[in-house]
Specification:
- The protein is α/β, with parallel strands linked by helices.
- It has one domain: TIM Barrel (Alpha-Beta Barrel), CATH 3.20.20.
- Helices cover 35% and strands 14% of the residues.
- The chain contains 15 helices and 12 strands.
- The protein has a 10-stranded mixed sheet, with helices on one face. Strands 2-3 form a two-stranded parallel ribbon.
- The N and C termini lie far apart (57 Å).
């Protein structure tokens, strides 16, 4: 199984499949991001979704209704739906979790999942592997040190439970990805985490810097988040000497303009941007949203399952129409002069909105590079053009 970036999850065969029933100016709806439960059994200090901490039991009304989800899948398939990502909160908390996985499989949808793995037992892992189209699982581990991971995740025993769940998945036949949320307190443990991942049978390791949203905002306010220089240094270290040293696939997502040519050649389109034009989020509340950011920013929710037509939302909601128009260009500032603009599409639109109040805007990292005069001149379309003489 090839490495998959679960913040995207769209393979070329999914992105290029024919559209059955949409206006010509509306892109295909290829993938649902299903935030199955708005609750979580952990209380992670960095979480950008800020799920309800419910000690392993979903709060009433915070789980996607099974029948409404089934109807949404039926409505979306003629619009091009081919895949779904199961996430949360913690997706396994949903009381109909396996039933939903079976439904998506019956509808012939490719499935990926993000989980803390603490609630996965061997029977569940076996069912997912043998009876569903779940092709990729990402498991969160923030340190090879149990005490540090438990502190990060807000629950004693979280590390042991996650490793146990990971083992069940491997025994069933999966090779999960490990995702490490990185800040200044655990960044020095990334090599030990890679070695742990290899020993556990992981397929890849992805390093996500803590975002300045949700609970992660406090980490940034305390000065514990990675700064501009630290983030770029970490990225080059992961994509360079560490990837040279280890056979396991390693990834760290930053805009493609901010990585070296060698790294671009090595990683291709891995982590190069978000395919939000082809994705619709559905929150545990049943709200249709840009992605999980709708949990904290109501204006990025577009309607409610069972009350609003999914097709009408996808084809006509003013926020989505404006987003598509803006992405068609011209793109703002340095993005409009960047050779990576077509595939990057201003990178993470949720992060852009958090930082600037605009979905289609220069990513915070590229904006900082431009401000410092460090945006690579060779990544500009205008680089090398002969300037008119004065």
């Amino acid at each position: 199984m090839d490495a998959v970036d679960t913040c995207d999850g769209l393979g070329e065969e999914i992105k290029s499949s024919p559209v059955l029933d949409l206006p010509p100016d509306v892109p295909a709806l290829r993938m649902f991001y299903l935030y199955l439960s708005a609750g979580c059994n952990l209380h992670c200090r960095h979480c950008w979704i800020t799920p309800t901490f419910v000690h392993g039991k979903p709060t009433e009304g915070e789980c996607i209704d099974f029948d409404l989800l089934k109807a949404a899948v039926v409505e979306a398939k003629p619009m091009g739906l081919l895949a779904a990502k199961l996430t949360g909160g913690e997706p396994v908390l949903h009381p109909d979790f396996l039933r939903i996985a079976d439904l998506l499989t019956e509808e012939n949808l490719e499935i990926t999942m993000e989980t803390n793995a603490t609630l996965i037992d061997q029977a569940m892992a076996n069912h997912l592997c043998k009876n569903t189209k779940l092709s990729h699982i990402a498991v969160s581990l923030d340190s090879p040190n149990a005490q540090q991971h438990d502190l990060f995740r807000g629950k004693r025993g979280a590390f042991d439970d996650a490793v146990r769940g990971f083992g069940h998945l491997v025994s069933a036949g999966f090779r999960p990805q490990i995702i490490m949320s990185v800040d200044r307190e655990n960044v020095e443990r990334i090599e030990a985490l890679i070695e742990l991942a290899i020993s556990l049978g992981a397929e890849s390791v992805k390093f996500n810097p803590v975002m300045p949203s949700g609970r992660g905002a406090e980490i940034h306010s305390q000065g514990k988040a990675l700064g501009f220089d630290e983030l770029l240094e970490l990225t080059h270290r992961i994509r360079g000497p560490l990837q040279d040293r280890y056979d396991i696939h390693l990834s760290s997502m930053v805009p493609p303009a901010m990585v070296t040519v060698r790294e671009l050649l090595r990683y291709g389109s891995d982590g190069s941007g978000c395919n939000v034009r082809h994705i619709l989020g559905i929150l545990g509340t049943g709200e249709m949203a840009l992605c999980g950011i709708g949990r904290n920013i109501p204006e990025l929710c577009f309607g409610m399952l069972g009350k609003d037509s999914l097709r009408e939302v996808w084809t006509a909601h003013p926020t989505l129409r404006r987003m598509r128009k803006d992405l068609a260009g011209p793109l703002p500032s340095v993005c409009g002069d960047c050779i990576h603009a077509v595939r990057c599409q201003t990178y993470c639109l949720a992060e852009n909105y958090e930082a600037t109040g605009r979905l289609v805007n220069v990513s915070p990292l590229c904006a900082e590079a431009e401000l410092r005069g460090q945006f690579p001149s060779t990544r500009r379309i205008s680089w090398g053009r002969k300037q008119p003489s004065e």
